[in-house]
Amino acid sequence: MEYLSLYTEPQLAEVEKVTPMDVDHGCLLCPLSEACKNPCLSPEGNDEKGGLLIIADHPFVADDARGRPFSSSLGAKLRRIIREHWDGPVYLDYAIKCAPKRGRRITDTIIATCRGYLAKTIEESRPSKIILLGSIAMKAMFGRSAGAFSTRKCFGWLEKTHTPVFMLMSQQVAFNNRFLERWFEEDLSWAIKQKVSDLREQSSRDGIANMITTSDEAKEAASILRDSEWVCYDSETVGLMFNRDFEVISVAVSSKYGEDAFVWSGNSLKDEEIVSPLLRLLEDPNVKTVAQNAKYDSNAMYSAFGIEVKGLHLDTRLIRKLLEPESVAKLSVLQEAVGMGGGKEIADKQIASITRKIRKAKSDVDLAEVGPIGWTKPIADKACAPGVYAYGLMDHVIRDRYCGRDTVSTARIAELSEERLKGTSIQVVWDEIMLPAARAIEYVERWGVAVDKKQIANFSSVVTELKENVTTKLFDKGEFNLNSTRELCNYLYTVYKLPILSKTDTGNPSTDRATLELLLSKSLKPEQKQFVENMLEYRKVSKMHSTYATKLGGFIRDDGRVHPSFNLVGARSGRISCSDPNVQQIPRADTELSSMARDCFVAPKGRVFVQLDYSQLELRIAAMLSLDKNMGDVFRSGKDYHMRTAQIISKQAWGISPDKVTKNHRTMAKSVNFGLFYGMSTGTLAKNIGCSKEEAQKIQNAVFGSFPDLKRWCDDHVQAARREGKAYTYWNNRRARVRPLFRIADQDDHVRKTAENGSFNTPVQGTASDFCLASLAKCVEWLVKDKFPAKLVLTVHDSLLFEVDEKHRDELIGSAKHLMTDWESNNVPLVVDAEIGKTWGTLESLD
């Protein structure tokens, strides 16, 4: 068996690569010193070595004025907290040695300039531990950084001295918010208590990639892996999935608590005898599997080898977002949690270089110089992102090491995730909602949705012509940048002299859609009205043109279908997001243009689309959670909720009897009903329904007055969020997901108000999303288990779109409706509406 070290050489931090420099108070290496009283601020510490080295981003003005690090009020607070947790020697220093002017951007060049001074501090203090405060400090140390909330309980190494380095948020961020201050102190305490030996073992930096080259080696590896509690795998691919030229070119598999990876690569994946033990291992439902973004690797194995990986146990990406919703869930960031940060950098540099060469190539000869013609040819033939072929063109040894590192680090991350999940509400969310949904979404992406190429071409032609026509009309008084807010503002309020009805937070006249629509309700001159109408039309047509008309065709795979990617943790509220293409952004088929866009998606011959859509799900969830009797009674009555709301508030809101309520009153009540859970301001509501702020406030008060338990519930959740800094979704009447709302303690009124809205929006929208996810999982499980002649091809917010044999449509509707409504909902009925059609744009309601 051949062996590759996961790391060819010690992964030196950037600070270990530079020559240490003595502090130079006359330093002129960068422009920051020009405005400083004390340039190149000296570190602070004593002669005792082996202590704690604290490195913050940069000095503040107060530090510069006193000529002493950490002497501002924030610094004093930090010193006190350090003393509470550490009684040994302390060194204090900054990554940037001069205090920058307010608003001055700290560039990579400035960071590199100061790195030698930092190296000298490390050399002199010889710390037992280093703690970085902020992303600039992290970049100075390692040459990379991550977001403020993505490196909690993360660490790295100075390889030459085996010194652990911990990453915390900056004290400036932490000390301006009482909830973040708790996080900060908790992370500081954790870092101080960690044993170096435990961290070194956790990081697995001495691992090996065991290269599988014979069938006997493959059998032995599979046997070893089967004895593990679970296996972790990762694949590297070339080409577009679901196309004939798609290939898996490297697969690495590791085990729980394993230090090494087994790697199948190149010809080993093409030899049936060598690859078979791997495939049998992964498709065995009794073998638990772990992966980062598992749906991609699972579908890659299906697309390349025709096997189904059925034993999903953990997806580290999804669990990261469940445990830390504010963090980044990319593997390159997650690796920081197990001391393997930077593991992607070597391969990433080569990938970036190859991608640049592909983009610059102007002929087949140029492409041939980049890599094998078998993989460069498709790049020339198809309009696609060159990155999908880059892994096939890189050095295979670098790629195999990269794949091995990814797998081993993912396994280490999974071990941590299991520990953090134990006994928490998130464990229940994972087991009962996310894990079934993660398995189901693999099928949804794999099945894809059929499209009509002729209709796409026709749609593109129509949209292009409409865009050109409306652009010509808008340039009646001269050309300007239609996508520039500043230039549009000039045309609206200076050239066409339209009244200023609202302003942005910065005080500038607003140009948003609501403002333009409100302008149309005013008495305007014909040319003014025409300009506003044309601008609204341009925005609608331009979005259709840039997002769908010119791009949709590029997503069609060799099977004649598009396979959108669905992100189960795409929004803070918990809703699924979508990309490649983002079909969730196509408007409902209530205009000719949006109908044309949806008509591009078609049911194959002998089949129809069935769309099942939850009726007013979020409002029903609000009634379920708040236990508001009046609200629940409306839903239990089966009457139109918005009309009934309008009738209930008719006297208080408009001074009319319930029998005088019209569709217009219903529309206003509907806007309020939905706006309640999104923190819609009175001004926005007034613009949306075309009334005064006073009338909008009156309607809002009337709605809340009619549903007192709902109002009390919302107020209680705001108060709870102010105390705890978080909000929750609910599952089986218990707290489930958690969403941090630390911004509820922010000093900015707008930021604080948004967080307050999130305190009751999160339980409503997030719980509704979980109902949809759980229903999607149940429906897919039924389709697969019973081999029912249907596919679930799209999910858009509260609806599921099925493609089904025509003769089985009624059976599908009955069974899927039952699965979607068979949830505990505190006696608030869940209702699902059905629509059918041959295209997505021609769906008709089914009574």
Describe the structure.
The chain has 847 residues and is of the alpha/beta class. It has four domains: 14-203, Uracil-DNA Glycosylase, subunit E; 208-422, 2-Layer Sandwich (Nucleotidyltransferase, domain 5); 425-450 and 556-617 and 760-847, Alpha-Beta Plaits; 453-555, Taq DNA Polymerase, Chain T, domain 4, CATH 1.20.1060. Helix content is 49%, strand content 14%. It has 34 helices and 23 strands. Strands 1-7-10-9-8-11-12 form a seven-stranded mixed sheet, sandwiched between helices. Strand 18 and strand 19 (734-740) form a beta hairpin. Helix 25 (617-626) crosses helix 33 and helix 29 packs across helix 31. The radius of gyration is 30 Å and the shape is globular. It starts with a strand and ends with a strand. The mean pLDDT is 91.
What is the gist of this entry?
With 847 residues, the chain is an alpha/beta fold.
Relevant terms:
847 residues, alpha/beta, Uracil-DNA Glycosylase, subunit E, Nucleotidyltransferase, domain 5, Alpha-Beta Plaits, seven-stranded mixed beta sheet, five-stranded mixed beta sheet
Molecular shape: globular
CATH class of the largest domain: Alpha Beta
How many alpha or pi helices? Answer: 34
Radius of gyration: 30 Å
Strand content: 5-15%
Q: How many beta-strand runs?
A: 23
Spatial gap, N to C terminus: 66 Å
- Major sheet characteristics: 7 strands, mixed
Q: In which order are the strands of the major sheet placed?
A: 1-7-10-9-8-11-12
* CATH topology tier name of the largest domain: Nucleotidyltransferase, domain 5
Looking at the overall shape, the CATH architecture of the largest domain is: 2-Layer Sandwich
Q: What structural class is derived from the secondary structure elements? A: alpha/beta
